Amino acid sequence: MSSTAMCLKVLAGANALGSPAGRMAIWVLLFQDLAAVGLLLMHDSATGTAEGRGVATMIGGAAALVALLFIARGPLQALARWTATQRDPELAQLLALAIAFGSAIAATSVGLSPALAAFAAGMIIGEGDARHVVEKEIRPFRDLFVGVFFIGIGVQLPLGLIPDVWPAVLIWLAILIIGKALIVILLGMLFGEEAQVMRRAGMILGHGGEFGLMLVSVSLSSGLISDMVAGPILLAIGISMPIGSILVRRAARSGAGVD
């Protein structure tokens, strides 16, 4: 999965969000983010089965949690609108943090991933009229938590394994950069998109991202995959991200005067 945060920031800086390649990349990024929710649910189901809870129980708990969040959709959005009218930055920050942490705690109580509930709660708030106000006020927290997330992942990277697993790292790196780009190009051309646009979109999406790091990390923590499997993947994703930022910038600049 590619890095939505990095791609959007670089594309916005190059004024390429509205280009054909930029729009195509954004569609794929949004689909990947939604797919991450399903993968988190699959992870929770797998770990729940290992702990004796069963797949049906986990899926039922997830469905109940999502249903509860969507039932609360109206009140939450109304509360967000009221908060926006108060023009109190601290109140907006408190509301956003309370919703995020509250939904995460609720998910944990039924054995689900906190990220799953926080993602759903964010989607609900993002659909409301006050989303711009809330987004503006929580931007410092977003940047802070993104930094904390990447630092946390960075300290988990098994750098000591590089001398032993570097062939596997190179293979995964090739899959992430070259393989993903080729898949994007071929699928786009299959659906009638221009080859030049898809080449740029492939360059934009040819790397790993934060959701990939998170999924591998939680799978490693829960014991679904071993250190020898997760290590090369984490290293490859970590290496691909700075390479990906260069590719995104080049793709955005190359299409600026053409698209």
From TrEMBL:
InterPro entries for this protein: Cation/H_exchanger_TM, Na+/solute_symporter_sf
Pfam families for this protein: Na_H_Exchanger (PF00999)
Domain Cation/H+ exchanger transmembrane: 1-248
Record bears the keyword DNA damage: no
Keywords: Membrane, Transmembrane, Transmembrane helix, Transport
Keyword presence, Amino-acid biosynthesis: no
Topology in the lipid bilayer: Multi-pass membrane protein
GO-annotated molecular function: antiporter activity
Entry GO CC: membrane
Membrane-spanning residues: 26-43, 55-74, 94-124, 144-163, 169-192, 204-223, 229-248
Subcellular location: Membrane
Alphabetical GO biological process terms: proton transmembrane transport
Family, per entry: Belongs to the monovalent cation:proton antiporter 2 (CPA2) transporter (TC 2.A.37) family.
Record's protein name: Glutathione-regulated potassium-efflux system protein KefC
Species of provenance: Paracoccus haematequi
